[in-house]
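Encode chain A's predicted structure.
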Amino acid sequence: MTAYKLILLPTEPQCPPLDCAQLASELQAMQLIREPLALDNGVFYPTGKHFLQHISFLGCSPSIELEPPSDPAELPADSAAGSFCHVFLHSSTSLCLRADKQCPAPRCPQCRQPFSGWRTVFSTFQQNPTLTDWNCSGCGFNGQLTDLSFRKAAGIGHTFIEIRGIYPSEAVPTDALLKRLQRLSGGPWRTIYIRE
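Encoded structure for chain A:
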């Protein structure tokens, strides 16, 4: 099952991974999230009292569900489907790619030709994180995977704040939230919208 997700991540892919406990503590202090709830595959954080002050929903009247289902038996399926807004925190010492299933091919920063083999190169990279080089078949440019621009359909990094239950471009983090995250990590953050 796939879910729509708004993901916040440091703009600089090489930003060192943040400790999830420290990140959770910071987000709880802002009341973006509450105490974690357990799922079979880890924990998630229900939205906090000030979630809507830190995530701005766009449009006339977005339909969002902020509360988890009251029946615990429904929780795993509703979480997997993104039936309600809730937060997962991910941090890894290895670089990770988070990409929409329909992500368009990134373009070469030199000649702007689409790099159609990017999924194969990333698959190889996931198996061996030292293999970060790629070559453009159009102009011969030799770059790093972190040089590729996926716009808002994918991102590379160590730390991700994943908010499930938000459709593409339906919401954005506020400047106050982004500034707080920047103070925590030492660099700016950005957003991507994916379905995975």
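The two ends are 8 Å apart (CA to CA).
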